[in-house]
Structures are given as C-alpha cells and as structure tokens.
Amino acid sequence: MSDDIDQEAFRKFEHDGWNSLSGGYHDHWECLTPQIIPRLLQETGIGDGSQVLDVASGPGYAAGAAAAMGAAATGIDLAENMRDLAAKNFPDVSFQLGDAEDLPFDKGSFDVVTMNFGVLHFPDADKALAEAFRVLKSGGRLGFTAWDGPEGSALGMASDAILQEGTVRVDLPKGTPIFRFADHAECAAVLGGIGFRDTASTDIMLTWQLPRPDALMESFRQATARMSALLGAQDPAKLPAIKAAMTEACRPFDNGTTTDLPMPAVLTVGKKP
Ligand SMILES: C[S@@+](CC[C@H](N)C(=O)[O-])C[C@H]1O[C@@H](n2cnc3c(N)ncnc32)[C@H](O)[C@@H]1O
C-alpha cells in the first residue's frame, strides 16, 4: 500500500463517482470490459456448481456470465446504484453492497473470486487481494484484470490529449497507480506475498469500439470515475482543444463505420494452496 493515499478520501471519491456514473458506464463500457470475461472464467476454472464471488461487480457482467455457466455467483460492489443496476441486469444473481477490503463472508467460502477491472479502484489493493485469499477455499482460484499501457492504449491517448491541451495537476484524491497491475512481476510479488501459488499473468488485447473518432472524450466523461473527474476539473475553455486532440489521436483507428481503439489488458490468476 502506498502511504500517501488518503484512503477514506479515495474510497469516497470512488463510491460517489461510480454511484453517479453507473448508467453511463453500462452504456459506454458494456462493449469493452465483458470481452475478457470468458478468459477470466476459463483460467479460474469456473464450472457447474462453483461458488463464485465477483468483487467490484459493477453492472454484474462477470457474476452474470458465471451464473450462465451454472455457477452459484454472488456479486459485491461499493456503489448502491451499481448494485441495483447489476440486480436489474441479472435478476437471478445475488448482488450485495460491500467493500472489497472488508468482505462480509467467512473464510473459505468460495471456489473462485473474480475482480474484473476492480483492483485499481480500491484504496488498498493489497488488502483487497488478501481478503480474496481469506474467503477462498483451499485450492480455490483468484482471477483479476487490470489495464495495460499507457503506450498503445486509448487510456494513453486520452491522457496525452489532456497533458497537451489541459493539465493533469488537479486536486483529486490519489489512488493506486493506474498501470501498477500491468506489471507481471509486481502481480506475482503481491500475490506471492499474500500466499497465493501458481500465479500467472497474461497480456490480452481488447478493442473499444466507438461510433466515431470524436466520441472518446464523452465516453470517458460519462462513464469513468477518475477520467470524468479529471476532465471535470479542466478549464472549460480548454475542453474543445482537449476533445480535438483526442479525436485526432482516434482517427487512425476509424474504419468509416466504427472507431476501434486498442485497450490492452492483463489477466492475473493465483491459487490458494
Ligand atoms: C471499472 S468498474 C468495473 C465493473 C465491472 N467489474 C466490469 O466488469 O465492468 C469498477 C467498480 O468497482 C467498484 N468499487 C470501487 N471501489 C470499491 C470497493 N472498495 N469495494 C467494492 N467495489 C468497489 C465501483 O463501484 C465500480 O462498480
């Protein structure tokens, strides 16, 4: 854990951000984060009857997919509106409110714990991963995903445009460095330190399909806590130039029908002995 993270400020920032952006996230990111879920479920060995906990379940994509494979899936998320959206999307799955760092389950409750693009949003990611270890049964598996980049990623394209035309020096609560869990060695060290064995990280390329090159800024602004706050903190007079810079960066990926942006990701798994 980084000592200079104000944990309560960051937790509130994440809670409030995702609570207000749940609908926008589902509208703009449903085409993106579920792409990796088949690999996540496969690598963690989910099957018929598996007891699965999906942490930071958001709109419920991973828990819903696990349930469709016959698993007994539970989702948990910090934001009430995300929990409600997930329950609406997947009425047959149980979704609860809760914090990844303090899971309301007994030790040894689950065969599999998944976290699909959740780990970057916890004030103390190491503590959340240790909580996953605690609630897993012996022989159970954790699988989590995180973004890679910034090179060759739409995340890097957006950040570069803000750096070029605006500023990243804004007063927002500091959180986990966004590309911390893109580093395979860091993932192995963190999981190994907790007690996980057989850890492995795999690079997987996802594609964020936007309708047009000029859609990138609004797709971030209406849907993601950190990027939305960063854009909201810019001088409004600079937003047109930031948008134009993002649009220019997106043009090479436009095929006349859609704009297909690269979003490289990393999937990491580990087993509780
Ligand atoms: C990027 S979304 C990922 C959603 C979903 N897993 C997916 O596949 O798209 C991050 C989610 O983490 C949740 N979150 C943030 N901090 C959390 C915490 N401390 N405990 C549990 N969930 C948290 C947010 O409310 C949000 O739903």
Account of the 3D structure:
By secondary structure, the protein is α/β, with parallel strands linked by helices. It has a single domain (7-149, 172-208, 260-271), classed as Rossmann fold (3-Layer(aba) Sandwich), CATH 3.40.50. It has ten helices and seven strands. The protein has helices at 7-29, 37-43, 61-68, 80-89, 125-135, 154-165, 184-194, 216-221, 225-232, 239-250, and strands spanning 51-55, 72-77, 94-97, 110-116, 136-147, 197-210, 259-271. It has a seven-stranded mixed beta sheet. Helix 1 (7-29) packs across helix 9 (225-232). It is globular, with a radius of gyration of 18 Å. The two termini are 24 Å apart. The model has no long low-confidence stretch (mean pLDDT 96). The structure holds S-adenosylmethionine (SAM). The site of S-adenosylmethionine has 21 residues, from helix 1 and helix 3.
For CATH, the homologous superfamily is named as Vaccinia Virus protein VP39
Strand order of the largest sheet: 3-2-1-4-5-7-6
**Percent in strands:** 15-25%
According to DSSP, the number of beta strands is 7
Largest β sheet strand count, sense and barrel closure: 7 strands, mixed
Measured between the Cα atoms of the first and last residue, the distance is: 24 Å
Overall body shape: globular
**H-E order:** HHEHEHEEHEHHEHHHE
Q: What is the CATH architecture descriptor?
A: 3-Layer(aba) Sandwich
Mean pLDDT: 96
State the helical fraction.
Answer: 25-40%
Give the CATH class: Alpha Beta
SS summary, helix count? 10
Distinct small molecules? S-adenosylmethionine
